[in-house]
DNA sequence: TTAAAAAATTAACTTAGATTAATTTTTTAA
DNA sequence: TTAAAAAATTAATCTAAGTTAATTTTTTAA
């Protein structure tokens, strides 16, 4: 058994997301396959880009630890935040497998990413991975559709409530919450750019929530103080089934 | 060769989308596979639902002819239109392969849909289909992200211009335009619910476009009279690469 | 052919959120 | 430790789009 195989298995054995459909599938394979699709861990510092809009990318990434945000800058200088990527989630797949990326991926806090390169070969060796990928994409799609709906049809406070509970829910699925509180590395501009609102208005809405005792933010930690009240603003439909 | 095989091949041979990655893959297969995953054409009348939000669905559909709209009704009665499905596009895949659908699919004009049932078995027999599916989903995702960006950050006229050129572009890829004009079965409420605006405001915006000579609508056909002007409102970024 | 229903149009008025701009607080890095 | 930069806060003012409601036009179906 070649030495790099030990390295790979060690890397994955300590990974909390080794049960991910994608990873399970990769873990039982021969060494020749490993040659053609190396897996590496990549450490990112806070505010460091994994890739930038326009970069060429033909790798897939799974976030192992940390918090990544997908952002897009438009010609006129506005920034949109597509979504927050939480540990265990997969990014980097695009329709054009080898084309330029249409958004940037930036780490908000120190993060560790698992990089799976040479995916074109990988899919031909392991075609079952296609369905894993499709399942993960279908989850991302559902999430994006929920944001689309909220941004298109609901008020600032409703959008904000939706976003906070949606994040709390996704973090809970991974055990990354602390009851009703969780580490929250986004600043008010990040929230604004996710929800299509201005920083000023996000600030007003957060103030209103704090004054009514719905939540509290302290040292990058968010405390949901009145889940029921926030929930009635958010609507019931913010829960997503995890992928295969 | 069993008779239903002739039927299937006849069905697909006349289909303009038989080059779709998904279809190409299905077309060379043994008759036992056909037993386990039947393909049928389904005709829909205008305003008929293919499926309704909440229905159980475990089939995939490819639109062969017509125009389908994906809509979601929320608890509070508002309707959102996720997107228009154009011929050659695939719908029906969800993360929970056998779960209830989270939106409805309704035909706006008489349509023909190709129904591929029993997809769970199909993917185990033909795992390569997974990547076809992932590629199609990645396209849908890009489209949805473009709408998300436009709705979150841009004015009513900009959103409208984006939507019209985006549709024109997708139709052109399929040769379903007529130069700068195309069949346009959406009413003003459909546009409003796609863009997160009110009918009244869509009407105002359309009037403005017509008065400035940018476009014209006649008997469900839309004529782009000044592509350059609409394009400068829409932004340059409305083009999508088709899937594999 | 015609009555009823659906869709489009228009105007008057309201409002949620944007804009601008200044101030305070917190974080960062030298 | 401290100066500089970044982020949060607040207030005053503005405006794009929403709301309501009535009218006209088009489509549908009997």
Identify the notable features of this structure and list them briefly.
homodimer; Jelly Rolls; globular; 42% helix; DNA-binding; 244 residues; Arc Repressor Mutant, subunit A; 4-stranded antiparallel beta sheet
Briefly note the CATH topology name of the largest domain in chain A: Jelly Rolls
Spatial extent as radius of gyration of chain A = 19 Å
What fraction, in percent, of the residue positions of chain A are helical?
40-55%
User: Number of folding domains of chain A?
Assistant: 2
- How would you name the CATH homologous superfamily of the largest domain in chain A? Jelly Rolls
Report the span from N to C terminus of chain A: 30 Å
In terms of structural class, how would the helical and strand content of chain A be classed? Answer: alpha+beta
- Residue stretches of chain A low in confidence (pLDDT < 50, at least 5 long) are 1-7
The secondary-structure element order of chain A is HHHEEEEEEEEHHHEHHEEH
What is the strand content of chain A?
15-25%
Biggest pleated-sheet summary of chain A: 4 strands, antiparallel
The pair of chains with the biggest contact is: A-B, 47 and 47 residues
Number of H- or I-type helical stretches of chain A: 9
Arithmetic mean of pLDDT of chain A = 90
| CATH architecture annotation of the largest domain in chain A | Sandwich
- The first-level CATH class name of the largest domain in chain A: Mainly Beta
Count of distinct strands of chain A: 11
What is the overall shape of chain A? globular
| Strand order in space, largest sheet of chain A | 1-8-3-6
Oligomeric state of the chains in view: homodimer
